[in-house]
Amino acid sequence: MPAGGRAGSLKDPDVAELFFKDDPEKLFSDLREIGHGSFGAVYFARDIRNSEVVAIKKMSYSGKQSNEKWQDIIKEVRFLQKLRHPNTIQYRGCYLREHTAWLVMEYCLGSASDLLEVHKKPLQEVEIAAVTHGALQGLAYLHSHNMIHRDVKAGNILLSEPGLVKLGDFGSASIMAPANSFVGTPYWMAPEVILAMDEGQYDGKVDVWSLGITCIELAERKPPLFNMNAMSALYHIAQNESPVLQSGHWSEYFRNFVDSCLQKIPQDRPTSEVLLKHRFVLRERPPTVIMDLIQRTKDAVRELDNLQYRKMKKILFQEAPNGPAGRTPGP
């Protein structure tokens, strides 16, 4: 039996200390689902003690593979506990209730992927530079502590109300570099992760590759090869030339940044630390870029048709105590 023992067991004091003993149902109110994945769902919620808005990721550890699910929860909590950086999501604690872990984190308005969905067009280059810079600072912090995110994509780059960019979703992260397991989301995966099944280890440079793919995603609304099935895409990434930005209207700085991130051979690819000195992210830009982008997105959400509005109204949840303001609810 691996460390952490049977699902839900708190006999090991090192495991027990990862969780608060309180009943989360008594501490958090107004839960509303804002997203979900293979692990479970994420909710908007309010902390009854101080009225603070938080995000709660609920992860079940019952049913099939309950022990593996429990190990995943322990691993993610241990990872989140280590994070101390303005560009990584702030962890508030974890509670257990009815075979479900409640991971409580700071609330973010939405992801960079949500922005693409709301606006139905690519971001402006200055916005991509600001989002990329924030994500890159978070990655440089992780890499300096021998951590790898392993699932960098627009959907895991979050924006918070004061205009900060945050890396989120550490469910795939590795605490020790180098790593050698096949983890991530296919279209954003670095060649050496795909080849890790045969060839061995990789390090934080896999996140640099994924950031380069994310830049293309923000510039073109989808990552390269997205029209292929996942298996074909994996083969293509491993065997073919690196993708490039398609349109000619982007600056030379942006093109060069993406090309640097997408060097096929990891030794030729710069580290996150080195890329923080790149002109693309250091070029002069208004300090309000992210705040303006958030405001532009909120305004656009209010104009969406009812179906899209229901999907994206989470971006407005923080605006008023009773939920989104400034729009007459549709049916």
Automatic annotation (TrEMBL):
Belongs to the protein kinase superfamily. STE Ser/Thr protein kinase family. STE20 subfamily. It holds the Pfam family Pkinase. It is found in: Cell projection, Dendrite; Cytoplasm, Cytoskeleton; Cytoplasmic vesicle membrane. It comes from Rousettus aegyptiacus (Egyptian fruit bat). The lineage of its organism: Eukaryota, Metazoa, Chordata, Craniata, Vertebrata. PANTHER family: SERINE/THREONINE-PROTEIN KINASE TAO1-LIKE PROTEIN, SERINE_THREONINE-PROTEIN KINASE TAO2. Keywords: ATP-binding, Cell projection, Coiled coil, Cytoplasm, Cytoplasmic vesicle, Cytoskeleton, Kinase, Magnesium, Membrane, Nucleotide-binding, Phosphoprotein, Serine/threonine-protein kinase, Transferase, Transmembrane, Transmembrane helix. This is Serine/threonine-protein kinase TAO2. ATP binds at residue 58. It comes from the Eukaryota. It is a multi-pass membrane protein. Its main location: other.
